[in-house]
Fold this protein.
Amino acid sequence: MPESQYRFSVGPWNLGRGADPFGPPVRPAVPFDDVLAVAVDLGFDGIQFHDDDAVPDLEDLSPAQIVAKAEAMRKKLADMNLVAEFVAPRLWEHPHGIDGGYTSNDAACRKWAIDRSKRAVDVAMALGCDLIVLWPAREGTGVRESKCPVEASRRLVDAVNAILGASPTVRIAIEPKPNEPVDTAFIPTIGHALALGARSADPARVGVLIESAHAILAGLDPSDEMGFALAAGKLWSVHLNDQNGLKYDQDKVFGAANLRGAFDQVRVLEAADYAATGAFVGFDVKAQRTQKAESATAHLATSQAVFLKLVEKVRTFPVNTADEMIAQRDYEALERLVLEHLLG
Ligand code: GLO
Ligand code: MG
């Protein structure tokens, strides 16, 4: 078993605005500089950005001003020994993104989405990172007949190509999610994301980011989704978290709903020596609404602690015993071995 060290990352949205969709904020929003301080405290060295987390109000700035602000952000990070992991164009909050960006029915909005994504590439390059994350949030429908899925799929390829064309070195990690905020998304699973990348102008520069909860919402096993992407050398980031069945997107602490499922995710990351690729382990988790402001970072600390304990569980798993059981096709014995190992 490899014993590589993991690198951890977090985005400002994981400390949050202190609100859920059903009421006003219950805690003050965490200022960006405090996010960086929390990351340092937790021993995380990667920061994940939406384009406008890195450069607020970028829609009102010229391309040169955007680059200057992103360069200043890079310096701020470097002063704290932090690096930018990725930049994600936040298309889903802007009025032009109401009907989706790349698959909007409005040609002007599609153009806006591509232009904004190219600006996100500029931001990434100025931050010193080459990774763009595409979460196709509203690239789908609420009313299925409102868009043609064939046309939408072609438009998504065109968008990926436009982003690849913005820089010879930029890479794209597609983060699929089957629903929310849309009813049905055009890129719901890793298979779809990888197929989209394969149809692009430069498949070598298109990979995936897997979020545990998104796989669960698609009715899939996150560890198998990860295994599929790892086998293809395409797992370029993860958003570990948890999800208690098919309900709203919960962004629970890693392992909180299904500890064995979390063990299996760590197991597959270990099996493929994900850490040695240099890719980060991100936790896309949110604090509970009930949490008081002074301890509203516990969800991140707990996710990391659970992850590291599960790394130990994977590294101490009695592999030889398991192999004998597998050779005997005694999977009931294997089941017990796994459960007793997890119970400690
Ligand atoms: C929401 C997504 C979201 C993205 C982030 C980066 O369900 O998981 O948190 O990961 O905006 O694009
Ligand atoms: Mg995510």
About this structure: The beta strands are 8-10, 46-50, 83-88, 131-134, 140-141, 171-174, 184-185, 206-211, 235-240, 281-283.
